[in-house]
Amino acid sequence: MTAPAPIRVVVADDHPAVLSGLVALLSSAPDIEVVGQASDGESAVRTAQVQRPDVVLTDVRMPGATGIEITPRLRETGANVLVISGFDLDEFVLGALAAGADGYLVKTEDPDRILQAVRDVHRGDSVLSVAATKAVVAALRGGGHTAGIPQAEEAEAAGARAGGAVPVASAGSSAHVPSLTRREEDVLALVAQGLSNQQIASELFVEITTVKTHLSHALAKLQLDSRVQAALWWQQNRASPQPLNSGQPPNPGQPLTQGQQLSPGPRPSGRRR
């Protein structure tokens, strides 16, 4: 049986010691291959355009262009984007997610956690550190340092403060919402509850490729870039405003792929093919 191809990763960080440490860590995993390195934003984009990696692991603050600013351009290469930073400020977290990042970690994470995060975002799931989870929850409740994700202009402001360019179609935009199919609504509801594609497929009794198709169509209709943005959009536009586990993020430090919920929210009704 042929072994699956390794996950191809580009790493970007302007601190040589951190860059070499991340490269060494990723290279130690048999299922991950580092195909490029960069020390500033523009070279990260150029490297991704040439190498076409599966995942780009990028620092949030770099010379030339920040990790937030280059995230949309990195996604254009077909890569999933995992932002890693020494900062856990709400404005960096919200700016990165609004720009389309698939996850946000801090550099103090356990090495195994970083490796698993790369695997998770490559699989199409989302990963947030404890600090990032708290920032998202605060934004959903209208708290934190920004009114944040609920309004497009606030998401843009968060990105601007963090030095990045944020798409106008942010997760909580109040613009006209295009019609979604019932199955697209079902998939979005489960994405918002933190389920992975495989878990959603099991929940709805469909193939995982079907889940990916519905999610892709929903993202395109809503002009969103990632499942994180999709989860935030659902929380703001569909889910009932209920408290989150008495104010505590569930399973702190675990990726959303482990069943972490941003809020209880309604579960889709009916299980149809």
Automatic annotation (TrEMBL):
Residues 8-122 form the Response regulatory domain. Residues 238-273 are annotated as: Disordered. Keywords: DNA-binding, Phosphoprotein, Transcription, Transcription regulation. Residues 238-262 have a biased composition (Polar residues). Transmembrane segments: none annotated. Residues 173-238 form the HTH luxR-type domain. Coiled coil: none annotated. The modification 4-aspartylphosphate is found at D59. InterPro entries: CheY-like_superfamily, NreC/VraR/RcsB-like_REC, Sig_transdc_resp-reg_C-effctor, Sig_transdc_resp-reg_receiver, Tscrpt_reg_LuxR_C, WalR-like. Pfam families: GerE, Response_reg. This is Response regulator transcription factor.
